[in-house]
Design goal:
The chain has one domain: 3-Layer(aba) Sandwich (Rossmann fold). The protein is 37% helix and 24% strand. It contains ten helices and ten strands. The chain has helices spanning 48-55, 78-83, 101-110, 115-122, 125-137, 153-165, 183-196, 209-215, 233-238, 240-247, and strands at 10-19, 22-32, 37-41, 63-68, 71-72, 86-89, 171-175, 201-205, 218-223, 226-231. The protein is globular. It binds adenosine-5'-diphosphate and magnesium ion.
């Protein structure tokens, strides 16, 4: 595994989000180290997606600190935050069905993220090499010339992860990646995400506890907009508070 990347990582302290008087996040605090893989679980409505919305600048917190590598994200707009190297994968893939796997990755690489991405694009051959490396990483090298519309549901999710990877994010946020996947695809996705972390931070929101166990990482349990429990999957699954609000239902 590569050395831990430099920087401070992701730092949330006392973050609150209020929608019409309702606290979707209630003094949430969370620290994700550079290179760390972190799973975030919790019942529906716990605030998981809102947390990602705050990190990416889509939603402004009513209060609290949100920093990435020392930069105050609450003062930046969505595109500035993306330029910092924070990438997000939504549940619904946004791949272009008529384009091939390679072409989808090519488009993602060309999409402006910042001066570095543009510089890399002008290298041509280097860009191709990078796309090929990402295709191997997400298990789609053999499908390079196939239209994305021919991929399975799981493969489309991996393609979208690949489209984020070519932008070389420093923090990747992934919301419910294995919904609708086969067991085999789910296991492969756990392996993929664990391999992607290390050189960057990865935060994965997911309901599937077998998948979270396979990630083999620290788990944060959210409940009513705040952190309820944190630790290994065994620790949080044995935590009586977690059993009561989430697992025992
Ligand atoms: P999760 O992803 O954990 O299921 P969400 O972050 O989507 O939870 O939602 C947390 C709570 O905030 C829910 O009760 C949801 O209804 C509410 N909520 C989320 N977004 C909005 C919004 N834009 N306006 C009003 N309420 C919202
Ligand atoms: Mg959600």
């Amino acid at each position: 595994m590569s050395a831990r990347p430099a920087g401070e990582g992701l730092y949330l302290d006392g973050v609150s989000v209020v929608f019409d008087g309702f606290r979707a996040l209630n003094e949430l605090s969370l620290v994700v180290e550079p290179g760390e893989l972190r799973a975030v679980i919790g019942p529906n409505g716990a605030g998981k997606t809102t947390m990602m919305d705050v990190i990416t600048g889509k939603t402004r917190p009513a209060g609290g600190v949100v920093r990435f590598d020392g930069r105050d994200l609450t003062r930046m707009d969505e595109s500035a935050i993306a330029t910092l190297g924070i990438g997000r994968k939504f549940q619904k893939p946004t791949v272009f069905d008529a384009l091939t796997v390679f072409e989808n990755l090519e488009l993602a690489l060309k999409a402006p993220r910042g001066p570095l991405a543009c510089l890399r694009w002008r290298l041509g051959g280097a860009a191709r090499t990078e796309i090929e490396a990402v295709m191997v990483r997400v298990g789609l090298a053999a499908r390079a010339a196939d239209p994305a519309g021919l991929l399975s549901h799981g493969q489309r999710q991996w393609l979208e992860i690949g489209m984020l990877l070519v932008q070389d994010p420093r923090l990747l946020l992934v919301d419910e990646p294995v919904a609708g996947m086969t067991d085999h695809e789910t296991a492969q996705t756990a392996e993929l995400l664990a391999g992607i972390a290390g050189s960057r931070s990865v935060v994965v929101v997911e309901h599937d506890l077998d998948f979270v166990r396979a990630l083999g990482c620290r788990v944060t349990v959210l409940h009513e907009g705040a952190m309820l429990s944190e630790g290994s999957i065994d620790h949080v699954q044995d935590d009586p508070r977690v059993v009561e609000v989430y697992l025992g239902r």
